[in-house]
Write a structure and sequence with these properties.
Blueprint (H helix, E strand, L loop, with lengths): L14 E3 L2 E3 L3 H13 L4 E5 L5 H12 L3 E6 L8 H6 L3 E5 L5 H12 L4 E5 L4 H8 L8 E5 L12 H6 L2 E3 L2 H7 L3 E6 L2
Parallel strand pairs: 3-4, 3-6, 4-5, 6-7
Antiparallel strand pairs: 1-2, 7-9, 8-9
Amino acid sequence: MPRGIRTDLHGRGHYYFLGTPLQHQPNEIYLLDNFFRLYKFAKIVEIGTNRGGLSVLFGLHSWMNNGWTWTFDIHNKVGMPTKWLLKNLPVKVMIGDVFERLECEFIKERLNSVGRTLLYCDGGDKDKEFNLFAPYLKIDDIIMAHDRGTKEIPYDNIKDTVQKYNLVPIFEKEIKKLECRIFMFRKSK
């Protein structure tokens, strides 16, 4: 990084992707970009839109692969130009609580429908999101959770689900090398 250039311009933990704010570190975006070179998805379900920066990355992947992204949050924090980008990508921003019946059923339907799905848990209750929706994954679907190794999602809170539903860790070597805070699992037989 050139001297004098800050990636965290506001000092609040926000980084940027194509001018859109996100709460993922640059090494995590690098990891996801490399991940998307190997894995293609018909559907991406993101829990925890926040300001929409990661939703833009997911939307670009969906656009390149003729897929769709649905992103959920209980608050609408997405501003311009992110709102414009999401409107012009195959992304549907959903405002609602994923633990409420309608939103929960909507997500389950996406997970059960044809085509590989990525479920990204980054809302306010990551381990609950992970444990609730993991049973609906199909073989070869991927589930991820952000803030790995923090009090927000300790492995002990998801390990029973990981074992019960045959979730196999992927990209572990890269995650450790890049010091990323993302769990990545593939649903196995």
